């Protein structure tokens, strides 16, 4: 089988996987309401929920709603923040937590309808983008933990252990910034002193089965062969990121 045949087979397989997924306009996805936390894990996720400042590109939008319908995203065209300066229905931040090397890792993930990317000085932005930040503490118990370190989605993962106090509000709320990296041409997350916004939080366990199943699938695969868009919350991806982004 030649390369062209392999490529067409891959596209056909992706189309088959996506065939049963209901996609709706990016500004019509209803976010999950932030629930009252009941477990230590949920309470810690709320306690350490970060701020996100936007320097470049889209504001975060909900990726999926309760019935499993997902955002169709935005085709890359026009300004980097065109048609995505903030959802009227409300935004969303997703969280997933687990132990890794005796540290408690809380991943916060944001979905963006489109993302900027440069290849060989050509703007090859694409539909869909995910960014994330990890707050590392010593325990899931919110009464007995502090921020020990942070990791951010960027080239090679940005890591700080611990982050400087100028980046943290009241010892719990880390301030992150979404920006277009000059070096990689991709969207990335960095620490910032600037004030940002928070979004309603929903944890991986609090999602409906329909929403979690869709996020675990291929609903957000990039259309371009230059881009690999991965949902960081997925089982195997989440575990791999914790290992690679460990900052200690």
UniProtKB/TrEMBL annotation:
Belongs to the Necrosis inducing protein (NPP1) family. One of its GO terms (cellular component) is extracellular region. Its main location: secreted. It is found in: Secreted. It comes from the Eukaryota. It holds the Pfam family NPP1. InterPro entries: NPP1 (IPR008701). This is NPP1-like protein. Residues 1-19 form the signal peptide. The keyword Transferase does not apply. Keywords: Secreted, Signal, Virulence. It comes from Phytophthora citrophthora.
